[in-house]
Amino acid sequence: MRGQVVDTESAREFMREALAQISEPELRAIAGELEAKHQRFRSLLARPQELTPQTLRPLLRSVFSTRRRVDELLEGPAAPSLAGWIAGLLGAEEPVERRIQAFCEGLAGLPEPVRHDLASELLHYTAPERYWLWTRWMWDPRTRTGA
Question: Which of 1, 21, 28, 104 is the most exposed place for a label (fewest CB within 10 A)?
Fold first, then answer.
């Protein structure tokens, strides 16, 4: 069994330093942008089975790990099945870990971290109250680094 992964006191110190560098209006602006992203995702993914390359392009451009891979996703071998994999990921029939696994297996042509980041952002920004955002820039258990 591993010990504590995150140094809680260091994380608190990091938060204090970060918050000292940003103003209240800037924090509100960031929160507003995150809410707008959530509303965009929720709207675009309300009927994932009806997604088209035209509706997927802006969504994939707003995900950091896929913004440079949009053409690869929309024109490559995964393209015909992408909407179905997204629908399966967002569906509630299976436990979330199985949905993420199936989604990532479907996008096997992409690097594993990109697949996981995309799955995390699709889940989180569609239903942030239900799914935490968990991307490698927040915490990568392989390299043991993150914010």
Answer: 1
